[in-house]
């Protein structure tokens, strides 16, 4: 008897784990807390004032959303940055544009960033 009920509760626990895993997986694409970081920058028109380049993403050219600073000092939305480097280290397009490409730090890669 005892052995039987133990076995049943064990099975039940397994089922619960499976269900909660499925729920977490289903929520993963858009959890409310990180929804903001899942997009490129804010459109410039939301701010009337002049914007300095340091407030703009070097990828989407919009207002930085959850900004990251690459080793070279250029800033990107975390969304844009991780999109850029998702296929591997990338040359920094802003560095290329500014003719700083000979700098070794112009390669963007995961981990080579700091938040501020
Ligand atoms: Zn961006
Ligand atoms: Zn750069």
TrEMBL record:
Gene3D superfamilies: Zinc/RING finger domain, C3HC4 (zinc finger) (3.30.40.10). Keywords: Metal-binding, Zinc, Zinc-finger. Pfam families: zf-C3HC4 (PF00097). Residues 57-95 form the RING-type domain. This is RING-type domain-containing protein.
């Amino acid at each position: 008897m005892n052995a039987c009920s133990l076995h049943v509760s064990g099975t039940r626990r397994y089922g619960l784990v499976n269900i909660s895993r499925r729920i977490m997986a289903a929520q993963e694409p858009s959890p409310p807390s990180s929804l903001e970081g899942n997009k490129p920058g804010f459109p410039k028109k939301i701010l009337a004032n002049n914007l300095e380049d340091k407030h703009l993403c070097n990828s989407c050219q919009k207002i930085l959303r959850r900004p990251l600073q690459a080793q070279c000092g250029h800033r990107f939305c975390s969304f844009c940055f991780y999109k850029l480097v998702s296929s591997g280290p990338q040359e920094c397009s802003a560095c290329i544009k500014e003719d700083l490409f000979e700098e070794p730090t112009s390669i963007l890669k995961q981990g080579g960033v700091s938040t501020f």
